[in-house]
């Protein structure tokens, strides 16, 4: 059981939430990874990597990661370096959650295309680059979106064969599920029409878990207050409760709900 936490707050407050979560028996704290806001949603925002770095030295057990890093919004070499740094700082507790990212305005406001086909290609290629850089060996890549010539990243991650990668599949189609199958986990969830988190039917989790190419981790993002047993019985290996910060602070400060 873990928490998926918005970064729309002061960094010190987010760190204290994560510390409280570990003290109360939660297994993981994962941060939303947004970078810019919009005038119609003017909120404070902290950098996910900086907060996770602070949590790495303030905690000793919980898994730490992002839900999600929109890899096409970032340079893959920077994400690779940030993830390795956090993995080593935390003693091998890092998980990298990736996807295309929402909302599209976080691309278009910065003059970037939000075309989903283009972003999907960048995500697939970006993951190849990140994994290649994590190898610690000289890496060359010439692709449609990225070029690397004989680059070597040291040190490699502590975790072997690599830092676990969870791929978001909020839209469950063969391309997104097939992408997740090539990595270590699939992050499932459901959104309302206005972009909020909705309740995912347990049947959808069971269908993914039953696939012959299902990755090792079946991760469900669910609204705070959801009974995790429903998803665990359907085959989920992780349930991440999410919501706004008042709800999550209350959860982090109490024993894990529904723990068996």
Structure description:
- The protein is of the alpha/beta class and 260 residues long.
- The protein has a domain at 2-167 and 245-252: Luciferase-like domain (TIM Barrel, Alpha-Beta Barrel).
- The chain contains nine helices and twelve strands.
- The chain has helices spanning 11-23, 48-58, 76-89, 105-108, 116-134, 174-181, 202-209, 228-234, 245-252; strands at residues 2-5, 28-31, 63-70, 94-99, 139-142, 147-151, 165-168, 185-188, 190-191, 197-198, 217-223, 238-242.
- The N and C termini lie close together (11 Å).
Which terms summarize this structure?
35% helix; 260 residues; alpha/beta; 12 strands; TIM Barrel; eight-stranded parallel β-barrel; two-stranded antiparallel sheet; globular
Number of helical regions: 9
Spatial order of the strands in the main sheet? 1-2-3-4-7-8-11-12
| Shape estimate | globular
- Average pLDDT over all residues: 91
CATH class of the domain at 2-167 and 245-252: Alpha Beta
| CATH superfamily grouping of the domain at 2-167 and 245-252 | Luciferase-like domain
Share in β-strands: 15-25%
Task: Show the helix and strand layout.
Blueprint: E1 2-5, H1 11-23, E2 28-31, H2 48-58, E3 63-70, H3 76-89, E4 94-99, H4 105-108, H5 116-134, E5 139-142, E6 147-151, E7 165-168, H6 174-181, E8 185-188, E9 190-191, E10 197-198, H7 202-209, E11 217-223, H8 228-234, E12 238-242, H9 245-252
Parallel strand pairs: 1-2, 1-12, 2-3, 3-4, 4-7, 7-8, 8-11, 11-12
Antiparallel strand pairs: 5-6, 9-10
